[in-house]
Structure to design on (840 residues):
């Protein structure tokens, strides 16, 4: 186990290093950030002064060296646009995103797993076919369209939910959370539903496919013959064996939603970190983009690690090496 | 689908009026206003950078020495009055009894500090025309300019005064989060990307603000902004989407307010003998070719088809409110659309078969910018000018087109002069390149006309505003005849407001809660 952890850690550092290098190289093609900051009629002397203040007067390799060496001292660099530490900018927006993603993922699992099990156990039922048709819609409808329709219907037409924003928040362990207030739940509902639909549909289809395969196995029939109830057979024997691919997809989707919930955040003006990434790309704000993508890589590595551990819990035959 | 969405909006308006009616009752005692902006401000520290949302916040939190009214007049701000001592020296008498939000008294030392601070910051352009600032006594400041400069007060409207003691103690990075000015509002709370709440500074020298609490919410997506207005979540939205204008207009309980902006969309034509995207000699060296291009561009058609009628065709390079504007002169009347005449001019200049060049334009900076570029391509095709389009996001654009413009022959961009003076624009865009520091640095046409240079020099050497105006008008006449650039149109600023909110849009787009009221 210790060896496995160590291996994972080294892998992670390698991934983070490569991400930082790739982003640095890419950003040298996306325009000079200094022109996003100085006024359009700035003179050469004014531009030179801005470059000096922002640290853009050095060559790219030198800038990269400065970035890496201050990184090792725990300094992630300053945003060109905001002139604030890049890490702070990301972290202060992170709780809002995580919160929305957690609600969306819980919603997706709670809906997708039972429906998937049902559709897998009764592949030819009328209800199963309706569920599958619905899941196709969930996969194919683009998030921004769903979001706008939900706003028109639930906010503008019926006035049940607010159209945008985060609502009241309360502090829990130093984090500002919407989930701690009723108004916050009221605000998170529409964006979380929008965000969950795609994942819900994918998880549902994965569960169904797994269940259909498992249902044909002999041990399922034996369990039933032994006298186990249909419910127990499906959920204890069946689902557990169908779950490995579902958990894998769950992990990937979780990372994906945390990192790139941008579109949902923009539509509902949800103050999360995804919007920061898009804004930073538009403004060529390299320090933020680098730190953001490194953080995303870290999140993926951690999630995959957790998924590996969950594997061993679901299937004792799997061990971590 | 069309009828469905229409009913949906109508029903929404019913719900919205209810919300507004109940909200209105509580507002009567303590007026509060929520404004939907297109973006969260990047800064609250005026020397850290500038963009519209930040500018809006700056002018709530801070004051300049000279205030700029909604109609672009320059009136006393923190300075009560001013006079010129000699051609390059100005004396400003400061307002007595003004305090910063923390109670510190505003004095001449703060002005001197701000000037020095700006010079070392990322915005040295704010004090480019100031040679020195000296405190004569607590309430008198003497400012000198490097050369006689008649519009110094206009420039000072952009320099927001900082509290020396507080700013020094707080440091640049924290100033962005904890601003401290003399302005009508103070910062209550700023949760990034969520809301920024200002509360009235009742000891404001200009009188206590009528609206006590202002909440700014960044709502980037235009359709969501409209929805938030119609559901009553916000009272005012900035930049109402063009496609939502008719809908909101037709709802009861809401109003659409528009006014032409200061942003002039202009086309710069290269006048070098050889141009980067043109094979052979550059035809645009010839004024007749430039005139032919101007005559081929149908600005009214662009307005009707691309801009939904929400643009104002430009008559000159600057709006009528500015120094240097020549009354009665209209580019559209001087060069009306006339394809036959344009073709004849091309033939006269020796290019009957036209030529090919590339237009550089943005796709996320101006309203419908990419579509305008496409319209230009089809219009110029009529006079056999083949326009290749090179369209890119603004993050690449400014570096790409930057002088010396090694990649560009034909550039579409926007220009605005909130200082109300054509001089700074002409100096930056039309003065010969590389002749004088701070002149011609954005001369994308590589235009060089000794007469224009001489007029700009003369304008920048007179301390008299009326004389400056007259000289700049001469320059305008020369430029309108020579056409180094084609002015296209001014975009329209569009606001959506609920009934009961009194909003007079400012020419400079800086929404000001201090100037608003709720009935």
């Amino acid at each position: 186990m210790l060896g496995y952890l160590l291996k994972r850690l080294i892998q992670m550092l390698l991934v983070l290093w490569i991400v930082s290098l790739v982003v640095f190289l890419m950003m040298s093609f996306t325009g000079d950030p200094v022109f996003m900051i100085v006024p359009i009629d700035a003179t050469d002397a004014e531009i030179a002064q801005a470059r000096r203040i922002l640290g853009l007067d050095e060559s790219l390799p030198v800038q990269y060296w400065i970035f890496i060496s201050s990184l090792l001292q725990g300094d992630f660099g300053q945003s060109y646009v905001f002139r604030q530490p890049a890490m702070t900018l990301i972290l202060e927006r992170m709780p809002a995103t995580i919160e929305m993603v957690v609600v969306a993922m819980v919603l997706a699992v709670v809906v997708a797993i039972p429906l998937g099990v049902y559709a897998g156990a009764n592949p030819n039922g009328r209800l199963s076919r309706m569920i599958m048709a619905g899941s196709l819609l969930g996969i194919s409808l683009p998030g921004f369209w769903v979001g706008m329709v939900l706003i028109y219907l639930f906010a503008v037409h019926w006035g049940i939910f607010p159209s945008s924003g985060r609502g009241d928040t309360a502090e829990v362990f130093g984090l500002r959370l919407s989930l701690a207030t009723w108004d916050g739940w009221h605000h998170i509902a529409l964006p979380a539903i929008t965000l969950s639909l795609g994942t819900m549909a994918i998880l549902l289809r994965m569960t169904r496919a797994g269940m259909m395969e498992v249902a044909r196995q002999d041990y399922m029939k034996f369990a039933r013959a032994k006298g186990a109830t249909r419910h127990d057979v499906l959920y204890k024997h069946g689902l557990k064996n169908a779950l490995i691919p579902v958990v894998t997809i769950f992990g990937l989707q979780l990372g994906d939603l945390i990192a790139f919930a941008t579109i949902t955040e923009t539509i509902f003006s949800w103050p999360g970190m995804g919007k920061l990434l898009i804004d930073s790309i538009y403004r060529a704000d390299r320090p933020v983009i680098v730190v953001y993508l490194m953080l995303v890589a870290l999140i993926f590595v951690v999630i995959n690690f957790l998924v590996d551990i969950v594997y061993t819990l679901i299937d004792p035959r799997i061990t971590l090496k | 689908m069309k009828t469905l969405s229409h009913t949906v909006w109508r029903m929404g308006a019913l719900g919205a009026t209810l919300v507004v009616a109940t909200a209105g009752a509580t507002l009567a005692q303590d007026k509060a206003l929520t404004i939907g902006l297109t973006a969260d401000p990047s800064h609250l520290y005026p020397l850290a950078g500038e963009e519209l949302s930040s500018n809006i916040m700056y002018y709530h939190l801070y004051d300049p020495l000279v205030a700029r009214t909604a109609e672009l007049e320059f009136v006393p701000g923190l300075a009560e009055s001013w006079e010129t001592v000699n051609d390059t020296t100005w004396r400003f008498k400061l307002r007595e009894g003004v305090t910063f939000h923390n109670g510190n008294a505003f004095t001449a030392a703060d002005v001197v500090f701000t000037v020095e601070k700006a010079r070392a910051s990322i915005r040295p352009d704010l004090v480019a025309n100031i040679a020195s600032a000296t405190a004569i006594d607590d309430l008198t400041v003497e400012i000198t300019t490097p050369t006689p400069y008649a519009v110094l007060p206009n420039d000072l409207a952009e320099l927001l005064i900082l509290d020396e003691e507080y700013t020094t103690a707080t440091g640049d990075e924290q100033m962005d989060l904890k601003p401290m000015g003399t302005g009508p509002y103070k910062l209550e709370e700023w949760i990034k990307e969520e809301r920024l709440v200002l509360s009235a500074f009742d000891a404001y020298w200009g009188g206590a603000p009528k609206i006590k609490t202002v909440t700014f919410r960044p709502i980037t997506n235009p359709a969501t902004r409209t929805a938030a207005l119609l559901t009553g979540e916000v009272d005012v939205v900035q930049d109402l989407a063009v496609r939502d204008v008719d809908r909101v207009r037709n709802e009861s309980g809401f109003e659409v307010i528009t006014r032409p902006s200061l942003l002039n969309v202009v086309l710069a034509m290269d006048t070098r003998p050889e141009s980067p995207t043109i094979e052979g000699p550059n035809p645009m060296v010839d004024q007749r070719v430039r005139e032919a291009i101007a005559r081929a561009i149908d600005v009214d058609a662009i307005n009707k088809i691309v801009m939904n009628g929400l643009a104002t065709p430009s008559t000159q390079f600057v709006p009528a409110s500015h120094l240097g504007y020549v009354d009665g002169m209209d580019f559209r009347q001087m060069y009306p659309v006339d394809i036959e005449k344009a073709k004849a001019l091309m033939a006269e200049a020796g290019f009957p078969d036209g030529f090919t060049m590339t237009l550089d334009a943005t796709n996320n900076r101006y309203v419908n910018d990419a579509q305008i570029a496409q319209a230009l391509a089809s219009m110029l095709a009529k006079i056999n000018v083949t326009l290749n389009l090179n369209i890119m996001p603004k993050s690449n654009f400014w570096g790409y087109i930057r002088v010396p413009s090694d990649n560009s022959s034909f550039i579409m961009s926007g220009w605005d002069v909130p200082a109300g003076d054509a001089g700074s624009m002409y100096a930056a865009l039309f003065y010969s390149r590389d002749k004088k520091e701070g002149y011609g640095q954005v001369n994308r046409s590589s235009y060089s006309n000794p007469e224009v240079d001489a007029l700009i020099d003369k304008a920048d050497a007179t301390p008299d505003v009326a004389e400056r105006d007259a000289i700049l008008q001469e320059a305008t006449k020369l430029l309108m005849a020579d056409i180094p650039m084609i002015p296209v149109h001014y975009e329209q600023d569009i606001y959506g407001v609920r009934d009961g909110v009194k909003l007079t849009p400012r020419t400079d787009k800086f929404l000001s809660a201090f100037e608003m009221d709720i009935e």
